[in-house]
Amino acid sequence: MKIAIVSDTFYPQVNGVCNTFAKMTEYMDKKGTDYRFYVPLWENQTSIDPDRVLRFDSFKPWFYPECRMAIPNRRNYIKLKNDLDRFQPEILHIATEFSLGYMALKYAMENGAPTIMSYHTDIPSYLKYYNFQLIENAVWAYFRWFHSYAGINLVPSQATMDQLQAQEFTNLSFWKRGIDLELFSPKHKKEEVRSQIAASGEILLLYVGRISVEKELDVLMKAVKILGDRGLHFKLAVVGDGPYRQELESRRDPNVVFLGYRSGKELQSIYASSDVFVFPSGSETYGNVILEAMASGLPVVAPYSGGIKENLVAGFNGVAFEAGNETDMAEKIEFMIIDKGLRTKLGVNAEKSVEKKTWDSVFEELFLLYSSFLKENREFRKLSA
Asked: Between the N and C ends of the chain, which has fewer C-beta atoms within 10 Å?
């Protein structure tokens, strides 16, 4: 099977989508799949791409400065077209609605390429955080038009499927997410890592993710202030970076430590050495970090909202609070801080609840879907000939 994957999100960027494609690459290499990735070129990129990755001249969008998007010009389109003509993919998988995705869709429409798309980020819901809510309906209209050309539209969670069905998207199927149980495990716990952050034996809360307004970190910071005012003994470690970090750091909360980006063994140890994972965002299409935390043996405090509902079972592997309500979040975190027995019980359950969510099982299901789609497409073409 020959698969071409088009995405505006790829390494060296760091997020859940990039991680998913990295794991997909490992799976395809292991299975001997013939594939190509078409992705933006990053400025000052030092890593050398394998032959299976083709990069395109790009720019930094003002609304997401950590991202790159391919320049939508004729030069990039001809580069994409020529390589796809040479590669002749059996499936064109488009994972972005933006410039590179639009060019790939143009190619698919002109050449009849069998096309699958995947929906990764709830962009329309993010608009209100940047005072662009007036264009939300227009963005939905464009997304709906764009995805109408897909034979299959892949979504990561039931919540996302429900959302897109309400917006009249069609041909929806699941592509869920997995976890590497060797990378994320309680066995990576290190007391020296913990003591560097919580030197006085405080309960260690952890947030991992992009530091931006749409992640609703204001809710978390207000909850932390409430807990601090109550005299509770804790520290919050914030792992990640983003445009809102400077604003949050300027508040100088003594209970909050900003660690920046962390990866590999360092990130594994931070997860496993923490006590509770706290996550304020209610607009996730899935929430990969929830799986990482649970696999590391951490109970989760998060809103029962969006894709988080896929994994959070309130009272079993974590506790849920009302999305956007800092007082409720503070109360739920307080339960976890003061009750070690509850933390331990929910943490053990959290680890158990993800033990079957392996990446291999996720990609086996995806490639069965690919194969079924390819078979149906071939049969349709025979009937149409």
From this structure: C
Look up residue 269 and give its two tokens.
Answer: 């140890």
Element holding 365 (H helix, E strand) = helix 359-384
286: tokens are: 């899935």
Q: Does residue 61 surpass a pLDDT of 80?
A: yes
Task: Work out the number of other CB atoms within 10 angstroms of the CB of residue 127.
Answer: 19
% of the chain surpassing 90 pLDDT: 89
Of the candidates 103, 100, 120, the residue with the CA atom closest to the CA atom of residue 111: 103
Query: What letter would DSSP give residue 241?
Result: -
Confidence of residue 14 (pLDDT cuts 50, 70, 90): confident
Tens of pLDDT, residue by residue over 98-112, are 999 999 999 999 999
Residues in contact with 21: Cβ distance below 8 Å, sequence separation at least 6, in sequence order: 5, 7, 9, 10, 37, 95
Which band of pLDDT confidence, cut at 50, 70 and 90, is reported for residue 46? low
Does residue 63 have a pLDDT over 90?
Answer: no
Residue 127 carries which side chain, given as an amino acid letter? L
Are the C-beta atoms of 58 and 40 separated by less than 8 Å? yes
Domain locations in the chain as residue ranges? 2-178+358-384, 186-353
Nearest-CA neighbor of 267 among 287, 304, 295? Answer: 295
Q: For residues 155 and 174, is the Cβ–Cβ distance under 8 A? A: yes
CATH architecture group of domain 186-353 = 3-Layer(aba) Sandwich (3.40)
User: What pLDDT was estimated at residue 333?
Assistant: 99
Fold of 2-178+358-384: Rossmann fold (3.40.50)
Q: What is the DSSP letter of 301?
A: E
Q: What is the dihedral of CA 375, 380, 383, 385, to 10 degrees?
A: -100
